[in-house]
């Protein structure tokens, strides 16, 4: 990797030990070229006004401007830096997903887990937002787990929620299907029904019988509505 390609990072955390440890780990990552630190959200905005960065590693619980509030401000930037939340709390994982955070790290941060977050930041670089995988936080029995978008075979609407189906099970997330359909369109997901979204990567067969279209994903066969049949055929043909 050339020097020009190295990431510029900003660490935002009101706790000095956590801030310094994260900065130390990032300094030792060959993909990161510059690391600056801010002790709160207001200071972070001042530093960003002076010099932009590629990624902000941001704590959630801080005095004054909270991490999620800072992320909302950054979302309005003309050149929006990528966000990685770093926190001791897991109850904001779903909201972080809705804010399009690249990753969500739990404290204390392990070096290997941080290295994975940096990899995701690199893959989600400017101009190639969909080349990298995406992590979706899901809740199971009070525990927040993380599912990769590439693991999702299809998605079903359940009111204002969506159920993600993987090879090993399913997970309910507080995100509407319409939002996922728009956000994941460039990642190979296509609507086959008003309540169903499928990953073309996992489609094994497209079947047409008696004028009815369906798709097979492993052992699952899902109907395709007449309205979405043409789009599906076009996407399958050109994938």
Walk me through this protein's architecture.
This protein is of the alpha/beta class. The chain folds into 2 domains: 3-129, 3-Layer(aba) Sandwich (Rossmann fold); 148-238, LytTr DNA-binding domain (OB fold (Dihydrolipoamide Acetyltransferase, E2P), Beta Barrel), CATH 2.40.50.1020. The chain contains 7 helices and 15 strands. Strands 2-1-3-4-5 form a 5-stranded parallel β-sheet. A hairpin with a 2-residue loop joins strand 14 and strand 15. It is elongated, with a radius of gyration of 20 Å.
Keywords:
7 helices; Rossmann fold; 2 domains; alpha/beta; elongated; 239 residues; 5-stranded antiparallel sheet; single chain; OB fold (Dihydrolipoamide Acetyltransferase, E2P)
SSE diagram, text form:
Blueprint: E1 7-12, H1 16-27, E2 32-38, H2 41-50, E3 55-59, H3 67-74, E4 82-87, H4 93-98, E5 103-106, H5 111-123, E6 135-140, E7 143-148, E8 154-158, E9 161-166, E10 169-173, H6 177-183, E11 189-193, E12 196-199, E13 205-209, E14 212-217, E15 220-224, H7 226-238
Parallel strand pairs: 1-2, 1-3, 3-4, 4-5
Antiparallel strand pairs: 6-7, 8-9, 8-12, 9-10, 11-12, 13-14, 14-15
Concise account of the structure shown:
The protein is of the alpha/beta class. The chain is 29% helix and 34% strand. The strands form 4 sheets. A 5-stranded parallel sheet has the order 2-1-3-4-5. A 5-stranded antiparallel sheet has the order 10-9-8-12-11.
